[in-house]
Amino acid sequence: ITDTNEAQASFDLVLAQEIAANNNLEVARSTLQQISGQAPAPLATLRPSVKLSAPEPAQITPWVGIAEQQNYSVLGQQISLEAAKRQIKLKRAGHLPTVDLVASRNFSNINGNNNQFSNGSGTSNAIGVQWTIPLYSGGSVNSEVKQAVALEDKARSDLEYARRTAALNARQAYLGVSNGLAQIKALEAAEISSQSSLDSNKLGYQVGVRINIDVLNAEQQLFSTRRDLAKVRYDTLMNGLKLKAATGALKENDLVQVNTLLVPVYY
Length: 267
Hints:
This protein folds into three domains: about 1-40, no CATH class; about 50-95 and about 140-265, Outer membrane efflux proteins (OEP); about 95-140, no CATH class. It is about 65% helix and about 10% strand. The protein has helices at about 1-35, 60-70, 70-90, 140-205, 210-245, 250-260, and strands spanning about 45, 100-110, 120-130, 260-265. The strands form two sheets. It has a two-stranded antiparallel ribbon with strand order 1-4. A two-stranded antiparallel ribbon has the order 2-3.
């Protein structure tokens, strides 16, 4: 009876976990539908025997250096900094004299009812050069220059922050890929061991040296290992895409290659 109660308790616990997992799955599908605007079809899964490759180059330093230079956020902040520098030159030019080419054309038409000699029309043209020397404008130019300098400092700080963020993302993604590949190798070996343990416990149960709880625990261990292995594979694949995104090297062809690793699921 003790073995039976333990098996029933394990069954009830797993049933509750299954209900929670189905709920999380439906929430995730609803979120995906909100993004795509349509109900998601059955999602493809990774092939069971898929082999993921290590990043090239195999050192973290080159990836971090590329991310600090070619990340899209970094490139955008570099453009903002250059624009801020040019804005300073533009504001400082407010102290300089200016030369303008001025041209005008006037047309007049006069009509008088009392005196016919007052009627007439004419056109006058004028062209010239206007020289303007700013003497004092209430300090507005100096204030605009100070503001532009402050904005340049902000742009430089934003650029440094973008570089640090890109470097951090590259490090995290690279370590995620490297550690993920190591975990995949370990979990693949654990899956083989768990399968052997399950087979041994089944055989022991048949000859009477193992009880049903031993078989159930071995099955739970096997499927937990398979679940962890599947998750690590997905995480490693995503970290590989994140690594290329952090370095500004993510292309459409990378997603096409990921699609070749997937197999559709039919219900």
